[in-house]
Specification:
Blueprint lengths: L1 E6 L3 E8 L2 E9 L6 H12 L15 E6 L2 H14 L5 E3 L20 H14 L3 E6 L2 E7 L5 E8 L1 H11 L19 H28 L7 E5 L4 H4 L7 E2 L3 H13 L4
Parallel strand pairs: 1-4, 4-5, 6-9, 9-10
Antiparallel strand pairs: 1-2, 2-3, 6-7, 7-8
Length: 265
């Protein structure tokens, strides 16, 4: 079994692969204060419940692949792999790791590891040109050329950030449930805010992706648009440009990068 760990700013997603198939997944909050020991206990608690794994820490785990946008968590996970999974090959995505995707930006080290991993999976699953839209703490749009190169992207405030900002900064507004309203024209404040979030972000996705597609290909229709991230389902049915929804895109990319690097360990 391969354990994949995608650490985001808000949530950490874990996936368990049996070959090419993801057989289990978990989502937990990201807490930069957790120590390696605490993370090890958390992992044991989650994986100890799975019937394909043993009860002991590391039983059944044959490899680990990790990417993180939070440096402190990556540091602690490095300690977890060293201390608790010392005999298990581990790939932590950082400079020097082989991805198979050229990064054509001014400073490749500035690009979040998860965005590169998404590009890896997009090339493998759909080819290029492509745009990956990842609905997380930020909404990111990442461009992949027809030759499978990562060429850059767009970063916008995420859905939850926007909802929180409205509730904090609006004197007569409050935090709301992220849900689709009865109609675009809200009949009350909550529905009006929900409409602004859902349809506003759908419009943002359509507008940004259409502009990116015109830069990526002579015929924008040739560009495959892939949505991923925990909040993608909120916008999928309203955005018109999404071709594919792959909720485990980052985990699949981690599996691919692990396979491309494990022979070098």
């Amino acid at each position: 079994m391969l354990l994949t760990i995608d650490v985001g700013n808000t949530h950490t997603v874990l996936g368990l692969f049996d070959g090419d198939e993801i057989v289990e997944h978990w989502r937990i909050s990201t807490d930069a204060r957790r120590t390696a020991d605490e993370l090890a206990v958390l992992l044991q608690g989650l994986m100890g419940m799975h019937p394909l794994l043993g009860r002991g820490l590391g039983d059944g785990i044959e490899g680990i692949a990790v990417c993180s946008t939070v440096p402190s968590v990556l540091h602690e996970l490095r300690e977890v792999t060293r201390r608790y999974y010392g005999d298990v090959p581990a790939v932590l995505v950082e400079p020097g790791i082989r991805t198979g995707v050229p990064i054509l930006v001014d400073n490749p080290k500035e690009v979040g590891a998860d965005r590169i991993i998404n590009a890896v999976a997009a090339v493998e699953l759909y080819g290029g040109p492509a745009v990956v839209v990842d609905f997380g703490t930020a909404t990111t749009f990442d461009a992949v050329s027809a030759r499978g190169e990562y060429t850059g992207g767009v970063i916008a405030p995420g859905i939850e950030i926007s909802v929180e900002a409205l509730g904090v900064k609006g004197a007569q507004l409050r935090k709301i449930e992220l849900a689709r309203p009865r109609s675009v024209i809200g009949k009350n404040t909550v529905e009006a805010m929900q409409s602004g979030i859902i349809y506003g972000f759908a419009g943002q996705v359509d507008g940004v992706v259409n502009r990116m597609a015109r830069e990526l290909a002579d015929d924008p229709a040739d560009v495959t648009v892939i949505a991923t991230g925990g909040l993608a389902p909120m916008v999928l049915s309203e955005a018109t440009v999404i071709d594919e929804h792959e909720p485990w895109l980052t985990l699949i990319g981690l599996r691919l990068v692990y396979e491309r690097n494990v022979a070098r360990l």
